[in-house]
Amino acid sequence: MSNLNINITESAQAYLRELLAKQNSEGIGVRIFVENAGTPKAECCMAYCTQGEEQIDDIRLPMEGFPAYIEFKSSPYLEDAVIDYNKDRFGGQLTFKAPKSKVPLLGENSSLEERINHVLFSEINPSLAAHNGNVSLLEVYEDTEHGLTAVLKFGGGCQGCSAVDMTLKQGVETTLKANIPELQRVTDSTDHSQRDNAYFK
Length: 201
Known about the structure:
Elements: E1 6-8, H1 10-21, E2 29-35, E3 43-49, E4 59-62, E5 67-70, E6 81-86, E7 93-97, H2 112-128, E8 133-143, E9 147-156, H3 164-179, E10 185-188
Parallel strand pairs: 1-6, 2-5, 9-10
Antiparallel strand pairs: 2-3, 4-5, 6-7, 8-9
């Protein structure tokens, strides 16, 4: 039993019961998880879970007629999620609303990537949004010459913007290094030859 607040509505449960019954597999359930959790690319996923496929640390939600498992590491991102089923003239669709799926969460065991994403999400992207821009983390690697390096991708109005080098060096890099002292260098992977939506030209 868990105290995770996730709501699978009656209509969604009825739809899933029907779907699972067609699989002819004893004890089959669903497993819910978030891919790219805590990033702007977060996607909520649901998969069939045959008996024995669940992971030992999965959180089991008691549903009527079938088991639902929540991947443990996805569980904080699924807090307050609502899974609903809406009928329409094409049959209907399962909808997934998880307000916390894209929000980076920090704890004492947070990885470097999670910490960088948290700074991007909470401090850097809100100010870039004024220029219709955003920045996301592509990778972190140990560079033999420069040390720990974060590779960022600028998007929206920042892509192709002539001020991006200035923004990157002054704003983003300074903010990241202030929050994450072990970070040595910040680079940008965006192709700046595309200048269509640029804010500064």
